[in-house]
Amino acid sequence: MNIGFVGLGIMGSPMAANLLKAGHSVTGFDVSAERVEQLSGLGGKGVTGVVDAVAGADVVITMLPDSPQVEQVAPLVIEYGKPNLLYIDMSTIRPETSRWVAREAAAVGVRALDAPVSGGERGAIDGTLSIMVGGEAEAFEAAVPVFDALGRTVVHVGPAGAGQTVKAANQLVVGGIYGLVAEAIVLLEASGVDAVAGLDVLAGGLAGSRILELKRHTMVKREFTPGFRIDLHHKDMGIAVAAAREAGVSLPLTGQVAQLVAAARAQGHGSLDHSALLKVIERLNG
Ligand code: NAD
């Protein structure tokens, strides 16, 4: 397939690489010229604008930071896409923005899906992302060959916006686990217990999680190279809190995690990995 790809950052770049490996042709654009050049180096075609990435594409994927960027790019995709284009937005954004994109697309015969992902940079590189998809069943079926090149767990979770609601649930769980792993490290160290040994045991028991599996050693070493930036997790906690408000439910732990992530940002750690929540818990303790 001819795939247009907009947003070649930490996630988008390895995802585009996997689409190329699967035999698709990829035409990509990013506001960063360096990112576009990187795609050309991988065998894709780099272009200098959204419209050029969309021209002639069977499928367009966007992997942008947040809702405002999707609000800016999606109308161009919809206007310049060929008839019956399949437009898959894989960014993590507000469910209501995804519903708006789906409505605008449907009005001109473009099939739109919201398909945010989980699995981080590692999952993007390995092609093992979890992909949660909202939209029409027929569009989902058409997108399966694309998803197969990018992920391992791919689930159609409901109508437009549902993918983003599932992603909000994912992010509140991830944030909560990071916060609690950080508290476990602070407790172990303050008690004179070796944190690596302690977390190694936790990772093999009921408390085990993918976060403990992948991040416990870097957290104990205080290595916070992103990965997934605190700034983006702050955005996602805002989406989760707003989604809870819209659904009329109270999520008290989500509120606390959102405040911890906000504190990490306020303390100047916005561009560090989200495991840097540990810095906030440490600062609370002197
Ligand atoms: P990133 O900041 O590394 O990448 C975003 C890219 O979009 C950048 O290269 C930026 O230059 C580009 N961009 C911004 N505005 C643009 C525009 N108008 N036109 C073209 N390009 C534009 O972010 P990322 O970590 O790759 O995350 C992308 C999305 O995926 C976010 O919504 C994030 O929440 C989500 N996500 C990230 C991870 C992760 O571990 N990094 C995991 C799951 C989901």
Briefly characterize the structure:
The chain is of the alpha/beta class and 286 residues long. 57% of the residues lie in helices and 14% in strands.
SS elements, strand count: 9
CATH architecture label name of the largest domain: 3-Layer(aba) Sandwich
Ligand inventory reads: nicotinamide-adenine-dinucleotide
How far apart the termini lie comes to 56 Å
Category by helix and strand content? alpha/beta
Counting copies of identical and different chains, the oligomeric state is single chain
Describe the structure.
This protein has 286 residues and is an alpha/beta fold. It folds into two domains: 2-159, Rossmann fold; 165-284, N-(1-d-carboxylethyl)-l-norvaline Dehydrogenase, domain 2, CATH 1.10.1040. It has 13 helices and nine strands. The strands form two sheets. It has a six-stranded parallel beta sheet, with helices on both faces. Bound molecules: nicotinamide-adenine-dinucleotide (NAD). The site of nicotinamide-adenine-dinucleotide has 27 residues, from helix 4, strand 7 and helix 6. One of its GO terms (molecular function) is 2-hydroxy-3-oxopropionate reductase activity. One of its GO terms (biological process) is glyoxylate metabolic process. Residues 161-281 form the 3-hydroxyisobutyrate dehydrogenase-like NAD-binding domain. InterPro entries: 3-OH-isobutyrate_DH-rel_CS (IPR002204), 6-PGluconate_DH-like_C_sf (IPR008927), 6PGD_dom2 (IPR013328), 6PGDH_NADP-bd (IPR006115), HIBADH-like_NADP-bd (IPR029154), HIBADH-related (IPR015815), NAD(P)-bd_dom_sf (IPR036291), Tartro_sem_red (IPR006398). Residues 2-158 form the 6-phosphogluconate dehydrogenase NADP-binding domain.
